[in-house]
Amino acid sequence: MQVSSLCVAKFPLSVKAQLPTLKTQESMATAPKWAQKTIALPPYKRGCHLVTPKIAKEIEQDLSGFKCGLAHLFLQHTSASLTINENYDTDVRDDTETFLNRIVPEGPSAPWKHTLEGHDDMPAHIKSSMFGCALTIPITDGKLNMGTWQGIWLCEHRDHPTSRRVVVTLNGI
Amino acid sequence: MQVSSLCVAKFPLSVKAQLPTLKTQESMATAPKWAQKTIALPPYKRGCHLVTPKIAKEIEQDLSGFKCGLAHLFLQHTSASLTINENYDTDVRDDTETFLNRIVPEGPSAPWKHTLEGHDDMPAHIKSSMFGCALTIPITDGKLNMGTWQGIWLCEHRDHPTSRRVVVTLNGI
Amino acid sequence: MQVSSLCVAKFPLSVKAQLPTLKTQESMATAPKWAQKTIALPPYKRGCHLVTPKIAKEIEQDLSGFKCGLAHLFLQHTSASLTINENYDTDVRDDTETFLNRIVPEGPSAPWKHTLEGHDDMPAHIKSSMFGCALTIPITDGKLNMGTWQGIWLCEHRDHPTSRRVVVTLNGI
Fold first, then answer.
1. Partner residues linked to C143 by β-bridges
2. Assigned CATH class of B32-106+116-172
3. A77 touches chain B (CB under 8 A)
4. What is the largest CA-CA distance in chain C?
5. How far is A38 from chain B (nearest CA, A)?
6. What is the pLDDT of residue A30?
7. Which residues make Cβ contacts (< 8 Å) with residue A51, sequence separation at least 6?
8. Which H/E stretch holds residue B126?
């Protein structure tokens, strides 16, 4: 594997070299780091929403300290989802919501047993497992290394908007 | 990023501080750790099953040593899946199985070419990619940091129950 | 958690032991490492394709240096996907493509607003979120620790084949 010099680190090599002297700021920067934070996203109406700016704002300062690593986003809910998709045209988010509503039956004719929490609840659970509640994104040179057209979506599957918690875990060097 | 003091670690800082003296148990606890284990889940009948207690029992002792990190669960099969969803009402699991069977054709009228391993095999492969075979869950203060209503589901997509292997990898401080 | 001696490491223990002497090659091997590389997959026609050999060839040399860890694959696109599924019978890949085309409407009768980039574009975005654009796979003893029948698939959802970028991040000991 050809790897950029930026993102390869075998930590003890630098420790070894430093033993007789003081650590420099530079060598410190290559050490493994962990950071974890719970973000509260504001309530969004049912549908797919681009939340890259909101997420980035919360973590960009810490991200800047990582030359190479992984960012993990974990939504602590079972009736919404996180996915990565197109970041430009809002029609793509609307069409995706249209698809989800077409594919998952809802209302009186739906075959669900779990109906106590509302007609939109069981469909929301299914959509949550279809798209998933977690994302792992590479960090490169202090930034989320997504493609040009990729963005982070929060998909709210319930009718009633509520705040949603995301546990962000950063790990890298 | 505002991070709790619990979960931020820049490892070499503590190493540096310890050089002149013996390491204490406390400082050791902040060092990067890796653990990996293969768990065999017992055979489950076709459908969705809550396996949080079984998984937790296998890893809780090791988990307790991590203040902050990530737990990765990897199902080594292509006809079952792992997902995170509601942990309370068994109807939610039943309804999800109902949905999967509605959306993926099965039996003589299904359009599959791959039929040698049984009518339930090709649908099982599709369902496995729909929900996925892996989960990554944040670890916080020695526990899986899922939401109140979240649980780990094993979804068995084959008719004949078989034991399923899950490779668990823990990484953190 | 019973863990194999191979894959458990509490890094500072070895550092501590080494302080008075030189590090040996053996002890170095247990240190946390990160590597990251962007791979360009060649253009594939619309459908599901087994890319395990191509991915493995690109990373196998680096992989061999990890006794225990995680490999993260991140596709930087929103109209293709990565999934893990059956690695033997090409019919399984064909049938999965058949399923995706059945479930996501395409063409003049489809309900999409986002049509400027072609009739296959909006369906491609939806399929990308259904299967996802990222995989995390355990590394054990220098190899991707997948099940016997598991393989990495690139699913190309556009009609026109284009090269696809995958950011691979390796982390472990």
1. C140
2. mainly beta
3. yes
4. 75
5. 8
6. 61
7. A41, A152, A153, A154
8. helix B121-131
Interchain CB distance below 8 Å, A138 and C36: yes
CB contact under 8 A, B3 and A78: no
The topology under which CATH files domain C33-107+116-172 is: Jelly Rolls (2.60.120)
CB contact under 8 A, C136 and B35: no
pLDDT tens per residue across span A1-50: 444 434 555 443 333 323 333 343 433 346 789 999 999 999 999 999 99
- Inter-CA distances, A133 with A99, A166, B19, B101, Å: 18, 9, 42, 22
pLDDT greater than 50 at residue B5:
no
- Give pLDDT, residue B28: 40
Tell me if C61 and A15 make a contact (CB, 8 A cut-off). Answer: no
User: What pTM was computed for the model?
Assistant: 0.88
Which of B16, B94, B173 lies closest to A34 in CB terms? B173
Interface chains of chain A (3 or more CB pairs under 8 Å): B, C
> Which residue in the set A11, A33, A167 is minimally distant from B145, CB to CB?
A167
Bridge partner list, B80: B156
- Each domain of chain B, given as residue ranges in start order, spans 1-30, 32-106+116-172
Closest Cα to residue B81, out of B41, B38, B48? B48
Interchain proximity C62–A10, CB inside 8 Å:
no
Nearest Cα of chain B lies from the Cα of A2 at a distance, in angstroms, of: 25
Number of Cβ within a 10 Å radius of residue B148 = 9
The DSSP code sequence of chain A is ----GGG-EEHHHHHHHHTTSPPPHHHHTTS-EEEEEEEEEPP--SEEEE-HHHHHHHHHHHHTT-SEEEEEEEE--SSEEEEEEESS-HHHHHHHHHHHHHHS--STTS--S--TT-TTHHHHHHHHHHH-SEEEEEEETTEE---TTEEEEEEE-SSS---EEEEEEEEE-
Q: Report the chain B residue with the minimal C-alpha distance to residue C100.
A: B126
Helices (H) and strands (E) in chain B, counts: 5, 9
Task: Give the chain A residue whose CA is nearest to the CA of B173.
Answer: A34
Nearest CA in chain B to A104: B99
- DSSP H or E stretch at residue B39: strand B33-41
* B47 part of contact set with chain A, CB < 8 Å: no
Candidates 3.40.30.10, 2.60.120.460, 3.40.630.10, 3.40.50.150; CATH matching A32-106+117-172? 2.60.120.460
ipTM score for this prediction: 0.87
> Is the CB of residue C92 less than 8 Å away from at least one CB of chain B?
yes
